[in-house]
Structure formats: structure tokens, C-alpha cells
Amino acid sequence: MAAIIKIENLYKVYPVGKEKVVALGGISLEIEKGQICCILGTSGSGKSTFIRMLIREVKPTQGHIYVADEDLTTMRNWRVPYLRRNIGCVFQDFKLLPNKTVFENVAFALEVIGKSRHVIKTQVPEVLRHVVFNIERGQTLHETIDFLNMCPDFKKMDIIYANELDDGAVRSGNCNVAYEIAKSIGMNYAYGLEFIELVNPNDNKGFHGNALFSRWPIRWAKVVHMPEQYNWYYDRQKRIGARVAIVCSLDIGGREVGAVSVHLENRADSEGREAQMAVVYDEIKKSFAPDTPVMIGGDLNTNTFDGNDIPGFTKLFNDPERLAKHMAAVEKYERVLPQAEENGFSYREFSSTEGTRRKPMPGGKSMLLKLDWLMARGMECVDHGTVSTETKDCTWAEPGSALAKFTGPELSDHNACWADCRFAK
User: Fold this and answer.
1) For residues 151, 153, 155 and 161, what is the CA-based torsion angle, rounded to 10 degrees?
2) What is the pLDDT of residues 401-415, one digit of tens each?
3) b/e 255-293 (16+ beta carbons within 10 angstroms → b)
4) What whole-number distance in Å separates Cα of residue 400 and Cα of residue 404?
């Protein structure tokens, strides 16, 4: 088989003052098509010089370099750009144009190789749509899949921060809810187990947890266990486990973006939820560089009261004026919101101004609370909104679909929230 790369007696000598430093001395080798090679050497042994010669960034002092039978040492300068379009090289430095944004840099490279503007906008997004959705176990799975596929606001969603998804529980059809959703909407996903339900002996697994869905490749994902604020084993909803966050590194058009799906404890007070988020911020600091954009999304259970104080929040429900004050200034009652800003994350412009959860109350009534949030660093909000999950509001459901046939009052007791974000300049 003919060599795709052939090196003959290659030398590179650099003049340093009156001395001469030999970076490469008499190298000869052949690399065949499909062959994988690894070049090893200590710092300063000439590895980078050798690679730079393969793209004609550096010319040799002596010898010949053949790439696809073309001699780079005699190649005319006007041919070099065409050579580089056929060689992929990951540089040690960024090779970015300082007067262009990250989007413009990546788009420029695609323009050079003749990609259309449509392809460029698909591969290098200017705006990412983030969605927060508490899926309420997946008990209305088929209708929820239709909701995600048919809702006009979700046609261009990039990332979903999802809470409360079952895997192998009778109440949700004993299926893997996260897998079924990911398969149906064509997204990658990571799942983190929070609890094993112990109430129903007919559960195949009884798993219950959170997920993160992404249109973009997930480089890596990890589950972060947060400190326990309530022992669910002794609750009527008997289960074992603890609240978790899913921390993911996404590849957005070649750029790393952090995405974190979080579900905080509802049976806790403000200080308890703050302690849980502190663990999440510690993990973000360990996992991402300070300038890496990161988005956090999920049900933070910002009730503005202690979830164990049933008489207390019943009293709040029965005082509409006081409840309205709580919802207008959640940050005064829930430390996780000021805590976000203390850790460099913004939440005000990314999150819903409306209530996001209809908490069931006695007499068939409900209390509207702001529980679901998006917060970001290194991103700017372009637009945001809330999508009702009440069946009467899903007027866009396609005729004949499971959603159109659904007769229940709501898909979830949480509305879905979204935000369009671009990278901060």
C-alpha cells in the first residue's frame, strides 16, 4: 500500500544567536492510509515542529515531505491553503481571529471550505434554547413526548433540564422514561438516579431521578449527590436515596459548555436548599475553567417556606396578599437565588416571571409557586417564556395524537420554562 505521508531525511535547524539548534535531525518515515501513529518525545524534542511542517506552516532546512504524493518542500505558496483544507489539525493554541467572536471564527472556517449559511447556522448556533421541565414521573409519557415534539416553542430546543423521571415503575408503565423521551425527540441524554421507590412491589426497578437531554454531543457526565435534607424512607412515599444534580460537558460546535440539571429538596427550608446548591457550585468549580459558559436548570423547589411546615404553608395559601408578596420577591425568602449571584450566575433575566408549579391543595384548589429556574454564567438572555402544561392550553396538538386525545387536566403540575441564550461577548 502506498504511503499517504512520506518523510525523507528531514532536518530543521534554527539559528539562535551564533549557535544553531537542531529541532529535527535526519528523520525518515512512511505512514500508510488508515494507519494510526503516535509521536512521543520530551518537551522540545521537535514534535510540534514536525506537525507544523506537515501543514507547511514551517519549511524544512533539508529533506522532503510528501503528502498524498505532493512534495511540500517545492509546493508554491498559493497551493498551501488547498493543502490545509484536506488536513485536520488540532492546535496547541486557539488560532482565533481576535476581531471576531467565537461564532464568527468557527463560521469563517466553514465559509472557507464552501459550506452554506444554512449549514453554518446549524453547526454553529448563535442562540441556544434551554428548557426546564419537571416531567412528573412520566405518568403521561406518550402525551409528554407529543408535547415536546409538537409545541411551537420547542421546535428548536437544544437542552432540556428534566426532573422526576421514572425507570421501571408501574405508575409510568414500567418503562425507562428518559430513554423513551430521548429516542422520540432524537436527543442525547444523561440520567441520574435519585431514589428507589419501595411502595409498589410490582415495580420492575422503582428508579426515580433526573435527566439532561441535549441536541449536542455530551462529552462527559457525572452525578453529584447533595446532602440529605429529608429522609424519605419514613414518608408515606417510602423510598431510599437522595437528591442529585447531573453535571455535563457539552460540545457546542466545538466549544465546551457546562450544563447542570438540578432538583432540590422540597421537604426542607431555605438553608437546606442552599446547602445542597453549595455542593453543586463546588463541583462546577472543579469541573470547568472559570471562563467556560455554564447553565443550571431545574426544579429548585423555592417554595419560600419550610416544606415540612404544613400548617405554615396552608396559612400562606389562605392569605393571597401575603402569597403574592412571596412570589414577587422569591429571593427574599430563598437563599439559593442570592447564592447564585454570589457564585457568578445570573437568574433574573433567564427565568419565568410567572408561577411554574400548581401545588395541589385541599378542596381541589392549587397554589401557584415559582419553583423552576434557569441560571447562567458566560451567557446572555435573548428571550424567555413559559409554556402551560394544562391540557386546555395545548391547542396546537396535532389531530389524532395522544396529546390531542388526552382528557386529563394537565400533563404535569409544573409548566415548562425556556430561555434563548447566546454566548456573552
Assistant:
1) -100
2) 999 999 999 999 999
3) bebbbbbbbbbbbbbbebbbbbbbbbbebbeebbeeeeb
4) 6
